[in-house]
Amino acid sequence: MIALPALTALAAFLVAGAQAHGGVTSWSIGSTTYPGWQPFLPASQQSATAGRPYTSYDPILNPTASTIHCNDDGNAGPNPQSISINPGDTIVGHYPQWTHAEGPVTVYLAACGGANCNSVNSGSVKWFKIAEKGLISGTLAKGSWANGILMADLKWPAKIPTNLKAGAYLLRMETLALHQANTPQFYPECVQLIVGGSGTALPPAEYQVSIPGGWGVSVKVDIYGEAAKTQTTYNIPGPRIWSGFTGIEIPGGSK
């Protein structure tokens, strides 16, 4: 029989392991906060939420994993909601914890093509990138990264493009942790939005990608290698950022 102190220590260890890393558990626009998916609760105990389901804070280690779109099988939860937002507004993803300082943060949108995204599988849509931040200053080995900001602030903002066409969208917020050599760790979470306004713009095809499919194994990087000691640029995976205005581009893929 295991002694009670040993059981207590084991339970504490298991809880700590379950709580490692991090993920989005709520969203906000201005002063209004919306519940997100709670990954350690079963579906039957979830509040009505616009957050898409995921089951843990554990990373996705395969850059082309079938679940890498929204960290799940692609379907909405049992009582799906949508958050209303206007072009030009900022939505913030809130993390109860984040434990890795190295790596980029990216934000994607995907049009659902209907009144809402409730029946849309996130593996079937085309995604376009609206924001990214990676290596801010310094070198790969000793630099300041977007993930360091997230670790300090435990939140990440994303501005909806100002001329985006009204409709239903999935928003995908992803942290990519690079602290383990040649083993990128992906942490995507998604939320359902209804974008209002009178915008008319959608990105042309060259900005849109399937996920998985938007990048491959070339995302592997060793921030502890000899080259990383002097390298001051980092190519963020995925397509170029789409600005929200047809014909106007904001180059992505660096820093």
Automatic annotation (TrEMBL):
<feature type="signal peptide">
    <location>
        <begin position="1"/>
        <end position="20"/>
    </location>
</feature>
<keyword id="KW-0119">Carbohydrate metabolism</keyword>
<feature type="domain" description="Auxiliary Activity family 9 catalytic">
    <location>
        <begin position="21"/>
        <end position="215"/>
    </location>
</feature>
<keyword id="KW-1015">Disulfide bond</keyword>
<keyword id="KW-0378">Hydrolase</keyword>
<keyword id="KW-0136">Cellulose degradation</keyword>
<keyword id="KW-0624">Polysaccharide degradation</keyword>
<dbReference type="GO" id="GO:0005576">
    <property type="term" value="C:extracellular region"/>
</dbReference>
<dbReference type="GO" id="GO:0030248">
    <property type="term" value="F:cellulose binding"/>
</dbReference>
<dbReference type="GO" id="GO:0008810">
    <property type="term" value="F:cellulase activity"/>
</dbReference>
<dbReference type="GO" id="GO:0030245">
    <property type="term" value="P:cellulose catabolic process"/>
</dbReference>
<dbReference type="InterPro" id="IPR049892">
    <property type="entry name" value="AA9"/>
</dbReference>
<dbReference type="InterPro" id="IPR005103">
    <property type="entry name" value="AA9_LPMO"/>
</dbReference>
<keyword id="KW-0732">Signal</keyword>
<comment type="function">
    <text>Lytic polysaccharide monooxygenase (LMPO) that depolymerizes crystalline and amorphous polysaccharides via the oxidation of scissile alpha- or beta-(1-4)-glycosidic bonds, yielding C1 and/or C4 oxidation products. Catalysis by LPMOs requires the reduction of the active-site copper from Cu(II) to Cu(I) by a reducing agent and H(2)O(2) or O(2) as a cosubstrate.</text>
</comment>
<keyword id="KW-0964">Secreted</keyword>
<protein>
    <recommendedName>
        <fullName>AA9 family lytic polysaccharide monooxygenase</fullName>
        <ecNumber>1.14.99.56</ecNumber>
    </recommendedName>
</protein>
<dbReference type="Pfam" id="PF03443">
    <property type="entry name" value="AA9"/>
</dbReference>
